[in-house]
Each structure stands twice: as structure tokens, then as C-alpha cells.
Write a structure and sequence with these properties.
Elements lengths: L4 H24 L15 E4 L2 E4 L4 E7 L2 E6 L5 H9 L8 E3 L2 E5 L5 H38 L7 H34 L2
Antiparallel strand pairs: 1-2, 3-4, 4-6, 5-6
Helix pairs in contact: 1-3, 1-4, 3-4
Protein name: Ribosome-recycling factor
Family: Belongs to the RRF family.
Subcellular location: Cytoplasm
Length: about 190
């Protein structure tokens, strides 16, 4: 149990930062109008008897505004990588040229953009729920510290702790909202 507000705030900040980082990682996998290697990050390939992340069997790079290039390191895995990309649910149709797989990104339809925005909102809401969970933990620790027999804090101090935790939470929720607005703008951009 943290003995002071500073330690508690550091712990809560670290945990809330984790929720923001996860949100950004999830957003990077959402397709926008631009090509990004992060789009293929969640893809796993059946290779060498294991289910491997794509980045462990190939190098992904951007070849143009609407084209990703996947340089597979081992010829025996090219077909598996192509199948994994095709079956990923991202609506991509890879084309193989030797050990290089070109992945053209078709333009997004308005319907697909709306779906992506809804998905982005779900991810943002999940991040907010995680941040609120961290806030709840912090509030419980403040109450527990107030009732602690060894090192109790006064009701005024407990109120100060609660106010500080709420300010921290509001700040992180605002960051989630801003990140969502930026991603939504990215998705809607034609």
C-alpha cells in the first residue's frame, strides 16, 4: 500500500499509460487510407510447425501510398504468408512475386469507413473502462489508507487524494478522446 499520494499517483499514471499504449496499438491495426506496416502486425503465420507473428518470418515495408511489400526470408514459407494475409479478415488480396508479396490496399468504401469508426469507438471505450478501473483501485487505496491503523490519513487528506486521482483520470480520458478524434479523422479522410 503506498504511503503517500506521490507514489500512488505514479503507480496510477503508469497503469493508465498502459491503457493508452494498448489503445494506440489497437488503432495502428485499424486500416486508414494510407499503407502502414502496423496493419499487418496482428497477422500470424503457420510456419515451422508453429503459429508465428508475421514479423518473425518476413519484413513488411511501405512501397507506395496504397501498397505494402512483404519480403519473406524463407521460400518455403511464402505460400503460408500469402494465405495468412488473405485469410486475415482485412479484405486484402496479396500478389506473390518470388519471395516478395505485394499487398495492394483497395480504397475504403464509405460503409467500411463507418464500420472502422465504430470499431475505433469500441477500442476507445475499452480504454476508458480500463482507466476508470485504475481510478477505482486508486480510490479504494485512498479509503484503505484513511482506515489504516498504522499510518492513517485524515478525511481531508483522503479527499485531496480522491480529487487528485479524479484529475488524473480526467486527463487520461481526455487523451483517449483526442486519440480517438485523430484516428476518426484519419479513417474518414478520403
Amino acid at each position: 500500500m503506498p504511503a503517500d499520494l506521490k507514489t500512488l499517483k505514479q503507480d496510477l499514471t503508469r497503469r493508465m499509460d498502459g491503457a493508452i499504449e494498448l489503445l494506440k496499438k489497437e488503432f495502428s491495426g485499424l486500416r486508414t487510407g494510407r499503407a502502414s506496416p502496423a496493419l499487418l502486425e496482428p497477422i500470424r503465420v503457420e510456419a515451422y510447425g508453429n503459429n508465428q507473428p508475421l514479423n518473425q518470418v518476413a519484413n513488411v515495408s511501405v512501397s507506395g501510398p496504397g501498397l505494402l511489400s512483404v519480403q519473406v526470408w524463407d521460400k518455403s514459407v511464402v505460400k503460408a504468408v500469402e494465405i495468412a494475409i488473405r485469410d486475415s479478415g482485412l479484405g486484402l488480396n496479396p500478389q506473390t512475386e518470388g519471395q516478395v508479396i505485394r499487398v495492394p490496399l483497395p480504397p475504403l468504401t464509405q460503409e467500411r469507413r463507418t464500420e472502422l469508426v465504430k470499431t475505433a469507438h469500441k477500442y476507445a471505450e475499452a480504454a476508458k473502462v480500463a482507466i476508470r478501473g485504475v481510478r477505482r483501485d486508486g480510490m479504494e487505496q485512498a479509503k484503505a489508507q484513511e482506515k489504516d491503523k498504522k499510518a492513517p490519513i485524515s478525511q481531508d487528506e483522503a479527499k485531496t487524494w480522491s480529487d487528485e486521482i479524479q484529475k488524473l483520470t480526467d486527463q487520461f480520458i481526455k487523451t483517449v478522446d483526442q486519440t480517438l478524434a485523430d484516428k476518426e479523422k484519419d479513417i474518414r479522410q478520403v
